[in-house]
Amino acid sequence: MNRGRVLNVLFALAVVALALTTAVATGVVPPPATLFDTGEYDHAEIAITNNCSQELGTVDVRIAESRQQKIVGLSETPTLRNGSGMLFPYDDSGDHTYVMRGMDYPLDIVFVGGDGRINAIESAPAPGPNQDGNDIQRTGTGKYVLEVPRGWMESHEIDVGHSVTIDRS
């Protein structure tokens, strides 16, 4: 490469660096450290009752409200104890696909309608060695999606049609 070309490349890199610095300084683009920052999670308690209004179990959840929190989900949570989980609320009921990308443990993925009733409960295994989990997907319809440790729903005899109440206080 000749000297003129090297100088042109260096000049172009300097212009790009200056443009990015200006974009971050003016707030047009978030700083690199915040691109994947999920921020603080709100918390709630979820109570699940059967059709006779008998409480079958409660779950302490973190609420993934932002787009980034929903993308990361539980993948950065090293362990998930029984009685805890994550809730993913949406503006409207719709089809949602959840992927086990980067997960270290299996989950029950619960799709809850806008009426508070469980529409579907899907079990998902943790990815095996040398798997990224992208091919382990579960799809369901709901306004809310609840993730808890796999087997938690069955151990509490919770089934499709049971009611979910979310207490954010």
From TrEMBL:
Highest taxon, organism lineage: Archaea
Gene3D superfamilies xrefs: Protein of unknown function DUF192
InterPro entries: DUF192 (IPR003795), Saro_0823-like_sf (IPR038695)
Pfam families recorded: DUF192
Protein name, entry field: DUF192 domain-containing protein
Organism name: Halococcus dombrowskii
Taxonomic lineage: Archaea, Methanobacteriati, Methanobacteriota, Stenosarchaea group, Halobacteria
